[in-house]
Amino acid sequence: MAIKLQFGIVGLGQSGKTTVFNALSSAGAAVGDYSASKSPNIAMVKIPDRRVVRLGEIFDTTNFVYGEIEFIDIAGLAPGASLTKDNLAELFKEGSYIQAIRPAQALLAVVRAFTDPQVPHPDGSVDPARDIKELESEMILGDLLQIEKRLERLEHLLKVKPSDRGKNELALLQRIETHLENEKPLRELEFVKEELAVIGSFGFLSLKPVLYLLNLGEDNINSGHELEKSVIVQTGKKMAIASLCGKIEMEIAALLEGDRAEFLQALGIDEPAFAAVMSKSFELLGYISFLTASEKEARAWPIPNGFTAFDGAGEVHSDIQRGFIKAEVISYNELDSIGDWHAAKKQGKIRLEGKSYVIQDGDIILYRFNV
Fold first, then answer.
1. Domain extent at residue 175
2. In terms of domains, do 248 and 160 share one?
3. Distances (CA, A) of 224 to 23, 213, 279
């Protein structure tokens, strides 16, 4: 079964978060007044990969299957200097829409970097560095609320029925509570595998990898890299930064495929920013893709870096994993250069690998199996 990738989209109100959602997903979700809504926007998005199209040419197929990411866009968080545990508690208490992003592996945090007199920033000025700090604070406070609720229940339970397991959880949660009270995200705290299993159901927001996405204006679309550099000093462990102009990217996403190239050329853009966002997201999560191809289809399979050939077989089909014999492997670059699978085989470029082979990004794999 293919791995399901989920990204929760968060951001302060008026950051253009749902515009970015539309730009990435072509979903056409309502923008503007959406920030008052409590229902999340959800879309499955295909991950662009030019290698799949090239494999289609080599194997003579037009059936392309890409990896997918589910984007979950929730209502904008309300900024303000009066942010406290008490007023944030009200926000998180209502929280079916907050709960919607807790299962996500990572967050895409939209940060306003555009000016618009008709849509004033709630804090009175555009300051990406300030907004990043505020978003981090909101995630930390939200996690702290969860911890405090669980600690209260756990301490009561241990009085009634003491257990070593409960005591271990109590010590872990107290360590997490102290870290959060020091205004530090859980990304910066080290956990062993057993501890992660204990806290996995919490879906802590400040523990998730986060890609901060600067939402540029049309007037500063070419200054994205400079803006990234100006705030990159704030990024820490499991954090990354990228930029795009949500408004323009949403217009690109709404165009027919054939019209996009001309529009991009007129803007002086090589490709939609979506591709760069996905690249940074993969890097942040530690994901790569391997490829399979035949006359039936060319396909990309997103997997965590470090997966073995045996793990990858399970992604393709459980029968292939169960009856695994060998994996025929060649890198995309080599096959692209040669242009033909059989020719690559004659040249000895296709290797036979066993179960423990660690898959590399861009590996093209043909599994031999018997069930």
1. 5-283
2. yes
3. 17, 10, 16
- Residues 329-360 have pLDDT tens digits of 999 999 999 999 999 999 999 999 999 999 99
The pTM (predicted TM-score) of the whole model is 0.84
**Residue ranges of the alpha helices (H) in 286-331?**
309-316, 318-322
What one-letter code names the amino acid at 81?
A
In the beta sheet, which residues pair with residue 215? 112, 244
Note the pLDDT of residue 34.
44
Cα 47 from Cα 68, distance rounded (Å): 5
Written as six digits, the tokens of 64 are: 């392309």
Alpha helices in 95-189 (DSSP H): 96-99, 128-160, 164-181
| SS3 at position 144 | helix
Tokens 């096959």, residue? 335
CATH number at residue 365: 3.10.20.30
How many whole angstroms from its chain centre is CA 193? 21
Percentages helix, strand, coil for the chain (3-state, rounded to 5) are: 50, 20, 30
Alpha helices by DSSP H, listed for 192-243, are: 193-199, 224-231
C-beta separation of 363 from 291 below 8 A: yes
Adjacency order of strands within the sheet including 287-293: 64-65, 298-304, 287-293, 363-369, 324-331, 351-353
Same domain, 220 and 339: no
Same domain, 274 and 315: no
Question: pLDDT digits over 37-79, tens only?
Answer: 567 888 888 888 999 999 999 999 999 999 888 888 887 666 5
- Give the angle 168-189-3 at the CA atoms, nearest 5°: 90
Q: At 21, phi and psi to the nearest 5?
A: -55, -45
Please indicate, yes or no, whether residues 46 and 186 belong to a single structural domain of this protein: yes
Retrieve residue 201's tokens. 């159901």
Domain count, the chain: 2
Are the CB atoms for 214 and 228 separated by under 8 Å?
A: yes
Residues 209 and 77 occupy one common structural domain: yes
How far apart CA 19 and CA 217 sit, in angstroms, is 12
Give, in degrees to the nearest 5, the angle at Cα 328 between 326 and 334: 160
